[in-house]
C-alpha cells in the first residue's frame, strides 16, 4: 500500500485502526527478523492524537519504520550492537522529528549490520534479516530491515542510512525504491555516525511518488548538522525531455551477472523509447573507488567509534580491574568482528608512518574521482548502471569472506565518495525470480530530477 492508499484507509476507518493493522502485520512477518523492536505504545498514543485532531499534517497517521541507528523514542536505539543494546535515546533524529511533525507514526526500529558496517544485515549482533522475496537469501544491507519491511508491505516507507550503498543495495535486493540523497540534503543529526564524510539519510518506498513526498519533508538545513545544505528539494512536475544519459560501461563488464546486465540494458531501452539519448560512458577512476572507500571509511569509523569507551553511555564490561580493561573488555564485547576489523584498518591507515601512503593518497584519488564525475555531468544529465554485480546471495554464503563482501559495494561507493545523489529503482527479476535494481546517478542537488525521471518510466 502506498501513502495515498493508507491515507484513504485512515479516512475510511481511523489512524488507530491503520496503526493496529501495521503492528499486526509486523508481528505476522516477524520470522523475517526485519525489526528489532516495535514502538507500539507510543505509536498507538500518537494515532489517538491524530484521530482526536490533536496532531495534523501531510502524513497524519501514516506508519513508518526507522533503521535502528536513528535515535527515536519508544524503544532502545541499538545500532544492532551489544554496545547500545539498552541505550534509550534522550532525543530524536531530525529526520524522525520532521516526519513526526507532519503526523507520521513510527511503529518500529529495523535491523541492520551492527553500526551499519556491512552489506547483508548478517553483521547484526542479534540476528540476520531474511530477504523479502526468498527467505534463504540475504536482505542486503546495511539497511536490510528497512528494505524488507517496506517490500513486505508492512509500512509504505522506512528510513535508512547510506554510507557506501546501504540504502541502494538492499532496495535492489528486495525490489523496492531506495533513495540515497546528495550528501548534506538531509540532516544526520541523531543518527549513529559511521563515516561522517559519506553518511547520508534516505528512504525506502514502494513507488517513486512516495519517495518524493518523504524526501520533501526530510530535506533541508539543520543548525545541528553543519554539513546540511539549504533546502533544494522540490518535487518536479515536468520532466525534462530528451535527456542525455550515460550508461557507465565500467559497471557492465563480464564480472557482473548476465541477468543483471540484461535488465540494465532493458531499462536503457525504455529510456530510449521515451525519447532520451543513451550513450556509453567511461568512469576509469571507479576501478579505484573501492580501495579509496575501504581506507577513508574505516579511518572515519575508527574516529567515530572511539566514543564507545564504556564510560559515557552504552555497555560497560563487568569484572574489569583497571581503566584499560574497562575500555578493552567493553569494546571487545560491544563490537562485532566487522566493527573491530574496521577499527583496526582505520587505526592503521591513520597511523603516523602510513597516513601519507594510505589516507592522504586515498583522499587525493577521491578528488580525481569527483573530477571525473563532474566532467561527465557537463555532457550528461544522468548516469545509469547496475546497483550491485549480483542479485541477493544466500544467507551465510559470503560471511567468512570480507573481501568478497566488499567487492559487492563496487558500484555504490563511487557516488558515496563523491557525495552524489543516487537512487535504486526496481528493474525486473533475474531468472530465479530475484529482484534487480537499476541505479540512477545525478550531479549534486539533482535528487528531485532523478526521481522524476524514474517516475516517468515507472510501470512502463
Ligand atoms: N556495504 C558498505 C559497507 O560495508 C556500505 C555500508 C553503508 O552504507 N552503511 O561499508
Helix and strand arrangement:
Elements: H1 3-12, H2 15-28, E1 35-38, H3 40-51, E2 63-67, H4 94-101, E3 105-110, H5 144-151, E4 157-162, H6 168-174, E5 177-180, E6 200-205, H7 208-218, E7 244-248, H8 258-273, E8 277-281, H9 286-304, H10 323-334, H11 337-350, H12 355-379, E9 382-386, H13 402-407, H14 413-418, E10 422-429, E11 435-441, H15 447-457
Parallel strand pairs: 2-3, 2-4, 7-8, 7-9
Antiparallel strand pairs: 1-3, 4-6, 5-6, 5-10, 9-11, 10-11
Helix pairs in contact: 1-2, 2-3, 5-6, 7-15, 9-11, 9-12
Structural features, described:
- With 460 residues, the chain is an alpha/beta fold.
- It has a domain at 3-218: Amidase signature (AS) domain (Amidase signature (AS) enzymes, Alpha-Beta Complex), CATH 3.90.1300.10.
- It is 39% helix and 13% strand.
- It contains 15 helices and eleven strands.
- It has helices at 3-12, 15-28, 40-51, 94-101, 144-151, 168-174, 208-218, 258-273, 286-304, 323-334, 337-350, 355-379, 402-407, 413-418, 447-457; strands at residues 35-38, 63-67, 105-110, 157-162, 177-180, 200-205, 244-248, 277-281, 382-386, 422-429, 435-441.
- Strands 1-3-2-4-6-5-10-11-9-7-8 form an eleven-stranded mixed β-sheet, sandwiched between helices.
- β7 (244-248), α8 and β8 form a beta-alpha-beta unit.
- The protein is globular, with a radius of gyration of 21 Å.
- It starts with a helix and ends with a helix.
- The mean pLDDT is 97.
- It binds glutamine.
- Glutamine is lined by residues 116-119, 142, 162-166, 194, 297, 409.
- Glutamine binds at residues 116-119, 142, 162-166, 194, 297, 409.
Amino acid at each position: 500500500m502506498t501513502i495515498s492508499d493508507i491515507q484513504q484507509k485512515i479516512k475510511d476507518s481511523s489512524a488507530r485502526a491503520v496503526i493496529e493493522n501495521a503492528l499486526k502485520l509486523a508481528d505476522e512477518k516477524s520470522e523475517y527478523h526485519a525489526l528489532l523492536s516495535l514502538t507500539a505504545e507510543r505509536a498507538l498514543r500518537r494515532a489517538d492524537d491524530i484521530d482526536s485532531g490533536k496532531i495534523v499534517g501531510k502524513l497524519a497517521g501514516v506508519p513508518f519504520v526507522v533503521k535502528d541507528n536513528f535515535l527515536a523514542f519508544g524503544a532502545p536505539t541499538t545500532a544492532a550492537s551489544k554496545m547500545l543494546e539498552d541505550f534509550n535515546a534522550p532525543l530524536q533524529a531530525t529526520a524522525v522529528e520532521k516526519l513526526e511533525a507532519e503526523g507520521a507514526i513510527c511503529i518500529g526500529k529495523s535491523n541492520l549490520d551492527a553500526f551499519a558496517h556491512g552489506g547483508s544485515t548478517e553483521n547484526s549482533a542479534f540476528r540476520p534479516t531474511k530477504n523479502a522475496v526468498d527467505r534463504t537469501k540475504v536482505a542486503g544491507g546495511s539497511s536490510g530491515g528497512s528494505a524488507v519491511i517496506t517490500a513486505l508491505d508492512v509500512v509504505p516507507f522506512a528510513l535508512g542510512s547510506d554510507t557506501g550503498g546501504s540504502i541502494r543495495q538492499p532496495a535492489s535486493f528486495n525490489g523496492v525504491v531506495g533513495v540515497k540523497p546528495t550528501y548534506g540534503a538531509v540532516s544526520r543529526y541523531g543518527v549513529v555516525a559511521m563515516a561522517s564524510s559519506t553518511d547520508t539519510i534516505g528512504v525506502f518506498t514502494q513507488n517513486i511518488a512516495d519517495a518524493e513526498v518523504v524526501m520533501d519533508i526530510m530535506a533541508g538545513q539543520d543548525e545541528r548538522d553543519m554539513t546540511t545544505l539549504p533546502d533544494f528539494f522540490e518535487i518536479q512536475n515536468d520532466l525534462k525531455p530528451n535527456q542525455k544519459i550515460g550508461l557507465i560501461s565500467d559497471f557492465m563488464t563480464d564480472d557482473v551477472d548476465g541477468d543483471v546486465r540484461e535488465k540494465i540494458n532493458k531499462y536503457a531501452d525504455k529510456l530510449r523509447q521515451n525519447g532520451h539519448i543513451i550513450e556509453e560512458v567511461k568512469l576509469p577512476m571507479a576501478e579505484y573507488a573501492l580501495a579509496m572507500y575501504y581506507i577513508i571509511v574505516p579511518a572515519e569509523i575508527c574516529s567515530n567509534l572511539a566514543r564507545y569507551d564504556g564510560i559515557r553511555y552504552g555497555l560497560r564490561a563487568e569484572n574489569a580491574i583497571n581503566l584499560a580493561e574497562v575500555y578493552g573488555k567493553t569494546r571487545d564485547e560491544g563490537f562485532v568482528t566487522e566493527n573491530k576489523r574496521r577499527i583496526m584498518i582505520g587505526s592503521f591507515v591513520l597511523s603516523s608512518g602510513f597516513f601519507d601512503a594510505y589516507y592522504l593518497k586515498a583522499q587525493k584519488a577521491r578528488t580525481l574521482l569527483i573530477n571525473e564525475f563532474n566532467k561527465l555531468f557537463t555532457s550528461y544529465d544522468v548516469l545509469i548502471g547496475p546497483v550491485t554485480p549480483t542479485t541477493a546471495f544466500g544467507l551465510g554464503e559470503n560471511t567468512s569472506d570480507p573481501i568478497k563482501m566488499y567487492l559487492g559495494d563496487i558500484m555504490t561507493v563511487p557516488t558515496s565518495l563523491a557525495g552524489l545523489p543516487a537512487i535504486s529503482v526496481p528493474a525486473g527479476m533475474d531468472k530465479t525470480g530475484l529482484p534487480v535494481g537499476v541505479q540512477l546517478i545525478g550531479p549534486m542537488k539533482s535528487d528531485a530530477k532523478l526521481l522524476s525521471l524514474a517516475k516517468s518510466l515507472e510501470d512502463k
